[in-house]
Specification:
Strand order of the largest sheet: 1-2
Strand content: 5-15%
Distance between the termini: 60 Å
Radius of gyration: 28 Å
Order of helices and strands: HHEEHHHHHEHHEH
Largest sheet: 2 strands, antiparallel
Length: 262
């Protein structure tokens, strides 16, 4: 058996594996993919498209992503009606409090299990995996597998506060009585890069959304006049309480708000 890089011959795959690892810094999985799989890396047998974990040169890859076998081999076989009834029952149990999500109320700052799990996932969640996930979610949205909910049906519904935020941010009084004084106080320079172009004020402690929530009920859909009253109340709150803000240029501001959706 010959090394593809230096052409040295070996009497076994294991010898070639140890040579490749020590001399050429090629991992066992990479060599296995090249020699045994001919570049075709296996994915989970459930059909999710995610690559499984490499075990060893002798055993190769796992057949399943952990937990995914239940998607195919379950107590009901392929009885779709039974699966749907089970899903419905679990949802009802979560709703009435009989069943609880194990990590509800926990954070990575207070729970070591969440912290370790988060660190492990963040290391494996590469850009390519993010793209795969985004494509998969988009496909399921379009074909109706995951229904897209709008307005009050959405879990993110906050009483139409996004439009309230828009009219607040475009109001001249917010700029002259809150934004401009902060710009002046901080010498019209970005706190991060000292740029003096495209400056904005970032809410450093209380976000605009959290302040608006003090004045709205998410179960109410407000009229335009009611939204204007809330706008004035929110602006008054900024001024009266001297809401803290940091001067940032547009580019640095985007780094704090990756979606720039504020």
């Amino acid at each position: 058996m010959q090394c593809n890089i230096c052409s040295q011959n070996f009497d076994s795959i294991d010898s070639l594996r140890r040579h490749s690892s020590r001399i050429h810094k090629i991992s066992s999985s990479e060599l296995y993919n090249e020699i045994i799989l001919k570049g075709i890396v296996p994915t989970c047998k459930c059909g999710c498209g995610i690559n499984t974990k490499f075990i060893s040169f002798e055993k190769g890859y796992n057949d399943w992503i952990k937990g995914h076998i239940a998607r195919v081999e379950n107590n009901w076989g392929h009885n779709q009606t039974a699966i749907q009834n089970s899903t419905k029952t679990r949802k009802e149990q979560y709703k009435n409090g009989e069943r609880h999500v194990w990590n509800v109320g926990l954070t990575k700052e207070t729970n070591i299990s969440l912290q370790l799990a988060g660190n492990k996932i963040s290391k494996t969640y590469t850009r390519s995996k993010k793209n795969e996930y985004a494509i998969r979610m988009k496909t399921m949205r379009l074909d109706g597998t995951i229904p897209t909910k709008y307005g009050k049906e959405s879990a993110n519904w906050k009483g139409g506060t996004s439009s309230i935020s828009n009219i607040i941010r475009s109001n001249k009084r917010l700029y002259t009585e809150w934004v401009y004084p902060i710009l002046k106080e901080q010498s019209f320079k970005c706190k991060q890069c000292n740029s003096n172009k495209n400056l904005e004020v970032h809410h450093s402690i209380d976000s605009m959304s959290s302040i608006i929530q003090k004045f709205v009920d998410k179960n109410i859909e407000y009229t335009f006049d009611e939204k204007r009253k809330i706008m004035n109340d929110v602006i008054d709150y900024h001024i009266k309480n001297k809401v803290a803000g940091d001067v940032l240029c547009k580019e640095c501001h985007k780094k704090i708000h990756p979606s720039y959706n504020y």
